[in-house]
Amino acid sequence: MSRNLSRPINLVLRAAPALGNGADPGTFANDLWTPGRDSSGLVNAASWALVPRGRWVEVAGTRMDALDSVVKAALPGWREYGGAGLGAWDGVPMSWSSWAVDKDGGRLWLFGGGHNNSSNNGLYRFDVFKMQWAVECLPSSTVGLVPEYLTGYNGSSQSFSTYYPMAYATVAKRDAGQLNAINDIWHDQLPDGKPTARHSYRSLAYSPVMNKVIMACRRLWTFNLATQTWDYKRLFGDYISPLPMGQAPNPNAFVDDYYVSPEATINVYDVQRNAMYWTGYGSSGNGRQIGYDFNNNTWWQARLPFSNVGIQASVIVGRNYTAFRAIADNTGGPGYAGEGEYKVMSLDTGQETVSSKVRLAAGLALTDFRSYANEDDLPSLTYIDPINRYWTWSAMRTGYAPMEIDPTTTPWTLSPKSFTGAVPQPFGLLGGKVTYFAGLNAVLFNDLATRNFSLYRL
Asked: d(Cα 303, Cα 231) in Å, to the nearest integer?
C-alpha cells in the first residue's frame, strides 16, 4: 500500500560529527589501534590517519563490558544475572539483538539480553567519532526485585523478559476491563517503568525526526533522547479490536498473540515518512506484518519481503529496502534455511521491485554451507556505498566466512571475500551489529561485550 509522502517532516538537527584536532595520535601496531582523543573525547584526525586502509584493525578500549563499573557506581548493589555462560555482559549483545544506527550522527544504540541470557535492561550508546561506549539509560536496579525474576532460567521457569508480578497485575486489570493499549502496564516492564531485558532482534531503529530510539519488540516502545525517558509504549494488535478482548485470558499464559509482537521482529524505519514497516514471526509461527505512522500514532497496512520469515538479513539503501535470506544446506530442514533469496522493496511504493536468488561464484557450492543452527538466526548484511557491494558473513562448514554480494550482475553474485589484518570472526547471531559509516568511510563490527570493536577503513 502506497502512502502519501507530501507531508513535511522536521528533522532534529545536530551538529555533524567530526574528528578532533588534538595532538595526541595514539598508537597503531600489529593491527591494534589505540585512538588518541582531544579534550572533548573526539578521536583526533592525527590518530585516524594512522589507521591503514584496506585491512581490518582492532580498536583498543572499546569493550562494552567496561561500562560495568559505571553502572555499579550509579546503582549500588546492581549486578548482572544470566550471562549465558559467557562474559557477564556478553548476554546483552549476543542474544538476538541488533543496533539502532544514526549514520549521520555517528551513533549506535543497543538494547538486548532477555530470556536466560541477561537481565541487563540498560540502553547503551556507542559514539563512533569517540570510539567509546556510554550509558544512554541506566538499567533498572536489581535491588528489591523478586527472587524468581532474578533466578531467570537458573532454577525456575521465569524469564528475564517477563516480570511476573507485573504480569499478574496486568491480568487482573485486563479481567476488570480496565487495560489500555497505550502507556499502560504489561508483563514486559519492571516496576520503574523501564522495559525488561529482551531479545530485540532487528526491532531497534533511530528516528532523527523524533530524536528517539524505537524498539518494536513485545510492545512498541520509544526512548526520548531529549528527556532521557521511555516515553511511549503501545501494544501491538490494538488495531484489531479494542481492549479488553472480551474473554478472560489464561492466567498462566501472559503472552497474547493478538496484542504483542512475536519473535524475530524486524523494524524498518522510513525517515522520509516518519513511519515503520514491521514484521514478526517467531517460534510459534504466528507471523504478522503491519505499519505504524509516528506522525499521528496510527497503524496502517504494510508488508515486508519475506514477511513470513523472521530469519533474514536486511539493510536500507537509499529509498529501497534489501532483504536477504542467508544460505543453509538443509535438505528437508527447517523453513528458516534459505537458498540465498533476495528481494528489494521500494519504500516509496511498498512494492517489491527485485526478487531472485543469488548466483554462487565459481568454486562455491551449496555443500560448502552448513546446516541451519540457532546461532545463524540473525544473519548480517551491510551495504558499502562507494563500491556498490553488500558484505555478509555466511555460516560455512568451516565456520563463519565473509562474503560479498555483487548487485550489478543478474542475478546477484555471492562470492567469498578475502581480507587482510585482524579479520573478525563472529561468535554467532551477528545480525545488524556490522554496518558501514560514510562519515569515516569504514565498516564497524562488534558482536560481544568482551571484544573490542573491529573496523575496516576503505
From this structure: 27
Provide the domain count of the chain: 1
* Unique residue bearing C-alpha cell 551489529: 433
Q: What is the pLDDT of residue 302?
A: 85
Cell of 144: 528489591
71 CA to centre of own chain: 22
- pLDDT score of 153 more than 50: no
Q: Please, what is the Cα angle at 415 between 410 and 416, to 5 degrees?
A: 175
- Residue 240 in domain: no
Give the range of the structural domain holding residue 351, as residue numbers without chain letter: 314-377+381-425
Give 208's contacts (C-beta < 8 A, 6+ positions apart).
11, 12, 102, 104, 105, 271
Burial of 249 per CB tally in 10 Å (0-12, 13-18, 19+): middle
Residue 111 domain-assigned (yes or no): no
Could you tell me if 80 and 42 are in contact, meaning their C-beta atoms sit under 8 angstroms apart? no
| CA dihedral sign, ordered 201, 424, 406, 390 | positive
Q: Answer whether residue 324 is part of any domain.
A: yes
Residues in the chain: 458
Is residue 394 in a domain? Answer: yes
* Segment among 221-230, 321-330, 418-427 with least mean pLDDT: 321-330
**pLDDT single digits (tens) 241-281:** 444 433 333 333 444 555 567 677 889 999 999 999 988 87
- Cell numbers 548476554 label which residue? 91
Tell me the per-residue pLDDT of 294-353, one tens digit each, with 9 for 90 and over.
999 988 888 888 865 656 899 999 999 999 988 887 654 555 567 899 999 999 999 999
